[in-house]
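User: Hello, can you help with two protein structures?

Assistant: Certainly.
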Amino acid sequence: MCCATTGSPFISTLELRPLNVSMYAMDFEDDFFLKVAARINFGATSKDAVRYPDDPYDRIWDSDIIKRQNFLVGVAPGTIRINTIKNIDIQTREYPPVKVMQTAVVGTKQVLSYRLNLEDFPANARTYAYFAEIQDLGKNETRKFKLEQPYIPDYSNAVVNIAENANGSYTLYEPSYMNVSMDFVLSFSFAKTRDSTQGPLLNAMKIRKYVEIASKTDKEDVNVINVFRYLSSDTDPNNRDPCVLTPWESVNCSETTPPRIIKINLSRRNVKDEIPQELNNMEALTELWLDGNLLIGTLPDMSNLINLNLVHLEINKLTGPLPSYLGSLPNLQALFIQKNSFSGKIPTGLLSGKIIFNYDNNPELHRGNKKHFQLILGASIGILVILLLLFLTSLLLMHNARRKASKQKCDEKVISRGSTKPLTGYSFGKGGTLMDEGTAYYISLSELKKATNNFSRKIGKGSFGSVYYGRMKDGKEIAVKTMTDPSSHGNQQFVTEVALLLRIHHRNLVPLIGYCEEEYQNILVYEYMHNGTLRDHLHEGWSQKQLDWLARLRIAEDAAKGLEYLHTGCNPSIIHRDVKTSNILLDINMRAKVSNFGLSRLAEEDLTHISSVVRGTVGYLDPEYYASQQIFKKSDVYSFRVVVLELISGRKPVSLEDYGPEMNIVHWARSLIQKGDVVSIMDPSLVGNVKTESV
């Protein structure tokens, strides 16, 4: 039994009945299964079907008395019904129930015929007829008959003599017709032979259709993906076929026969040990995502993977040289191996410019002769030092001029890259127009569809829409934020966010790359943050190991700097209004950047607060903001305090289980601090590794 992986499948009752081994035909099971088309009890004494407990195997035998369209019509004249209470010997392969074999129909005028429609036919079928002599015949009486079916002459020639075939009366004889081609209307007749004194008899019949089994996934592919399952604690847990019916979440499959695995996506699935050598047998593979795991060792031979076009191996512990075949794979378009420990010379084919190749943070990996490389590196460092001294001198000269500025303002210069398109004009009260000085990097909808594979990989969902992963032509990875319903927010909300983001440049704020305003769609394009959100790592189990204390401090510092820049580095200042762990993103180096300014508002220079409808997230809202509906900069500070408590404790801001119905993380922590119990606030993974005084 197999339940689908989508939706909400459920079972009310599941009863299992053991089958006698002789009842299960295995001569075709690799290619077909048998589906019951008809199972009929002839001569039944009532309309009720015979089933469990009369049939211990819980088969359902329909009564021939049931009247429905095109079911057992065309009955020959002279057909009568007979039955007995004597026991019937049913010791054959099929073991039909005794109750079924105690009834029968008899053709008293030499012929016994019927016609019935078969659902889902024409098709090939396996048919069984069940005969048992349940009349006491005289010494010189015989019952012999033949099947009259011109389309299957081989079976029509056989004479049925129940007494001889079954070795006596009240004993079952069950001839089978193994592979019969049937139309959707089945007409059959049994006719007595000339030397027979009695007409034909039939107790029951069964027709089972051959149904072809969908081709199973290529065996070599199954072997490889099963090795990955063994190496991972987080892959598809069941034993079903990777491609047939519902594919595993970790694979994409081709539509060929047999299906082949064309994509493996095991990003951040705790895959450990070495990449299996058998991977080289997956010739149909086009994409391989193994980033963010615990893989070790060298790269195996993958030279047979001629269809491979995308490989993600970053953030692992892989070592050794890069094999030369990587530079000659004919369809390879992108290779990402950053944050590993590869060493040696990079194959020249990877440096041709035809392949997007990222190998950052592999200190022992170099482009050519290592001594030559070190010489160039030394010279470069020397030049860099000289340039740095010149730069510092320039800074000293400019220092006095900069001190004259009363307050640092946001950078209002908008850099035009590639094709550009002006944004719609929009003004902010006294602040004037933000959108009329230059243009932003405009990305067409068609480019975004191509970059995101038609928005196929969703990586997040916010209050204003979904976020999708994409990769531009130049290899730059992007996060594409689509507005759920542009008409409901108006163009004003979209333009507000673009205007804000274009004016803000800080290392701890997520940078805006571009935007799209096309076909009633408002889309923002950000730099892709490889390590997701802080919430993912604290509460969703993204981290392969717990965040250590220094990592948490660094994240808190980064987020604080981002918020400080919004509050004091911009004029007018910006209040975020929805500071929370899911709005703090982590880049490939686990450095934090504050995101989502869609809820931000500009605070005019002469105002200390903004009056507004309460927005934000439960658990992070400043009680004063909630009560007064006036938002202050300190409202962001309150929310940031909640984030810090999450970093220290590893707990969610609101939890009925942890804090009870009327408490949140702030109330809980305050009560423990008042008792002097700081240790109970700390994440258990930090206890013993961090001095309490530092908390």
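That covers the first. Now for the second protein you mentioned:
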Amino acid sequence: MPADGAYGAPSGSRLVCRRTAASRLTDPPAWICQNAPDKEVGMMAVPFRRTSKTRKRLRRTHFKLQVPGMVQCPNCGEWKLAHRVCKACGTYKGRDVVNK
């Protein structure tokens, strides 16, 4: 195998290029963001583990649309939202609340 990777390792190996002693003295630390305007940005929080498919899907089971609770008005028989005034006849709990 040809030695095309870092430090003469075969290409595709997981050996990464390490900083030399001279570059450690001159280069800024690796944890400082090189693109930041003030160069004083610290490390970011990273999750310890990857979220599994099961855990992700269990969390997302609650991200769904809910069907509104529809009931028939006892006065006129029109469908209305539960615990709301009927838009057709204007009654709520058997009383006329809105004059139609």
